[in-house]
């Protein structure tokens, strides 16, 4: 499961999506850049200039908002089509590999594992261009104000980017452990609940409760460990975010005081700082999330491999049942109707 595979689902849509995300991000930064001159126009009491700039900002904001909504629609459509292809390959692999697969294993792979990879990896691929564009355009804006602002951003932004790598091995471990715990829980539920009638017969309900509680506790512990690791990454990002904001404001105050930049920069730099903070934070976090499911992605890739098989399955000429019944331990008998279904016929049983 990779960006290349996601891109191959619909190349034209994916290219259009990436371009639109990049341009939309630029428009958002452009609105903040225009705000610099709006504030300065208010300070200098140039009301006509202020009205023109605020009207332009409103138009650009509406365009960027519409662009973001189009991007979200295209992203979801691309991912859903991609997941459909993956599920189809997994089902084919399980069908032809001549191995026994429990219901819990198949269910876990087709639902929990794919959703985990989608949230931590596939959906992130389409976010990266957007956040990169915000960093690029915001950096250009800061450079246009004064080079010292950009230097502060580059130094502290680089620091924030590399810190999360310290937690990457731990994130990989907890993601895989969570998947295994969920699989074990579903497998336990399947095995015990399938024999529920026998459990009632021998009155071992307390043992069922004990085993299910243990499986549930294991799953809960795995989820808590994964959440704790993600919180650790968030703490690192917040610390570097505070440092970046303080440094930018300090440098801006010096520049405004010495009349090196216009007054409006002292307000706009907050917005640019926020864009850069959020973008670098999201890039660092999401890149960490991508690597956290590397092993799980490899397992899913193995389950999508094409299994060589000879011949094709032939549909039966007919399906006939006669005198089929099921007798339960309490003596109750359920009889099924006699059927004679020929090729091409459809029968509804209610």
From TrEMBL:
Residues 17-292 form the ABC transmembrane type-1 domain. It is found in: Cell membrane. GO terms for cellular component: plasma membrane. It is a multi-pass membrane protein. The chain crosses the membrane at residues 12-35, 47-68, 135-163, 246-269. Keywords: ATP-binding, Membrane, Nucleotide-binding, Transmembrane, Transmembrane helix. Its main location: membrane. PROSITE patterns: ABC_TM1F. GO terms for molecular function: ABC-type transporter activity; ATP binding. This is ABC transporter ATP-binding protein/permease. It comes from Lactobacillus crispatus.
């Amino acid at each position: 499961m990779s960006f290349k595979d996601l891109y191959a689902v619909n190349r034209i849509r994916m290219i259009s999506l990436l371009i639109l995300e990049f341009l939309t991000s630029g428009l958002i930064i452009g609105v903040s850049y225009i705000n610099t001159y709006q504030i300065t126009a208010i300070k200098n009491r140039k009301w006509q200039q202020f009205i023109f700039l605020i009207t332009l900002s409103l138009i650009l904001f509406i365009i960027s908002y519409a662009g973001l909504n189009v991007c979200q629609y295209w992203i979801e459509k691309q991912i859903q089509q991609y997941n459909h292809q993956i599920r189809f390959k997994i089902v084919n692999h399980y069908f032809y590999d001549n191995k026994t697969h429990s219901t819990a294993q198949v269910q876990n792979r087709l639902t929990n594992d794919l959703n985990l990879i989608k949230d931590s990896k596939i959906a992130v691929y389409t976010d990266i261009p957007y956040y990169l564009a915000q960093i690029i355009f915001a950096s250009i804006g800061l450079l246009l104000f004064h080079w010292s602002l950009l230097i502060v951003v580059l130094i502290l932004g680089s620091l924030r980017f590399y810190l999360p790598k310290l937690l990457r091995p731990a994130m990989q471990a907890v993601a895989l452990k969570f998947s295994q715990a969920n699989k074990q829980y579903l497998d336990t539920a399947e095995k015990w609940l399938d024999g529920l009638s026998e459990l009632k017969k021998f009155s071992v309900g307390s043992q069922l409760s004990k085993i299910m509680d243990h499986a549930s506790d294991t799953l809960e512990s795995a989820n808590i460990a994964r959440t704790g690791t993600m919180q650790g990454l968030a703490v690192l990002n917040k610390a570097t975010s505070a440092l970046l904001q303080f440094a930018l404001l300090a440098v801006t105050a010096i520049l405004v005081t010495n009349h090196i930049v216009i007054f409006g920069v002292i307000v706009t730099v907050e917005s640019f700082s926020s864009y850069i903070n959020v973008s670098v934070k999201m890039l660092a976090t999401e890149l960490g999330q991508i690597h956290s499911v590397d092993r799980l992605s490899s397992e899913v890739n193995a389950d999508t491999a094409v299994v060589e098989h000879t011949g094709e399955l032939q549909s039966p000429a007919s399906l006939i049942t006669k005198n089929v019944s099921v007798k339960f331990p309490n003596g109750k008998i359920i009889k099924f109707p006699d059927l004679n279904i020929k090729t091409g016929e459809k029968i509804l049983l209610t």
